[in-house]
Amino acid sequence: KAGVTQTPRYLIKTRGQQVTLSCSPISGHRSVSWYQQTPGQGLQFLFEYFSETQRNKGNFPGRFSGRQFSNSRSEMNVSTLELGDSALYLCASSEDRGNTGELFFGEGSRLTVL
Amino acid sequence: GDSVTQMEGPVTLSEEAFLTINCTYTATGYPSLFWYVQYPGEGLQLLLKATKADDKGSNKGFEATYRKETTSFHLEKGSVQVSDSAVYFCALIRRSGANSKLTFGKGITLSVRP
């Protein structure tokens, strides 16, 4: 079974631009979550999607958005990029059986904002 | 709100040394507890878990016991190897509610020297 796939793995943007990151979950997994990882703040929850609906959202500004498609693939978008958005963005999928907390993570998309 | 506190790092040990990484939590109800590990250049992987008080999770020689009286879930290994060098995250999820939001600690970097 293929793991969680995230694209692109690395990208460089400048302030004010926008970026879209993609995540393909493990086959059969219907829940997709996104996390931001930075050295200072650690892992912070962005949002979670299940069956194309946002089910949970973290404390991030509206510049951060996401969506999930009918095949469970998910994208997240960050508009009007700021220097502080530089981070590793991790996607995780789960079978969503009773809130187990067992997430399967991708390798992440490393975003650098200049 | 829920929170997880990990001991400050980084930690450097010699091969075959004993490892303890402290983790305490604050949460309402009865959370499930996890240790995730992130090897260099990779996403997070579930290392072990415990779902109720006094449960012991174990995997790859690592162990952690769910201590409700001290709200702790310390990670231990009797003899570390160079291949254990990674970042370790303690996490919790509350079993109530229909979401899969894990709350993570800040993580601690473990380096094992030959």
Main sheet: strands, sense, barrel of chain A? 7 strands, mixed
Helix content of chain B: under 10%
Helix content of chain A: under 10%
Oligomerization state: heterodimer
The structural class of chain A is mainly beta
Shape of chain B: globular
H-E string of chain B: EEEEEEEEEEEE
Shape of chain A: globular
Radius of gyration of chain A: 13 Å
The number of helical runs of chain A is 0
Reading the helices and strands of chain A in chain order gives EEEEEEEEEEE
What Rg of chain B, in angstroms, do the CA atoms define? 14 Å
The number of distinct helices of chain B, counting runs of at least 4 residues, comes to: 0
What does this structure look like?
The complex is a heterodimer of chains A (114) and B (114). Chain A has strands at 5-7, 10-13, 19-24, 31-38, 42-50, 53-57, 64-68, 74-78, 87-94, 104-105, 109-113. By secondary structure, chain A is mostly beta strands. In chain A, the strands form two sheets. In chain A, strands 2, 4, 5, 6, 9, 10 and 11 form a seven-stranded mixed beta sheet that branches. In chain A, strand 5 and strand 6 form a beta hairpin. Chain A is globular and about 35 Å long. The model of chain B has no long low-confidence stretch (mean pLDDT 92). By secondary structure, chain B is mostly beta strands. Chain B is built from no helices and twelve strands. Chain B starts with a strand and ends with a strand. Chain B has strands spanning 3-6, 11-14, 19-21, 23-26, 32-38, 44-50, 56-59, 62-65, 75-77, 86-93, 103-104, 108-113. Chain B is globular. Chain A binds chain B through residues 4, 31, 33, 35, 42-43, 45, 48, 55-56, 58, 90, 92, 94, 96, 98-108, and chain B through 32, 34, 36, 41-46, 49, 89, 91-95, 97-107.
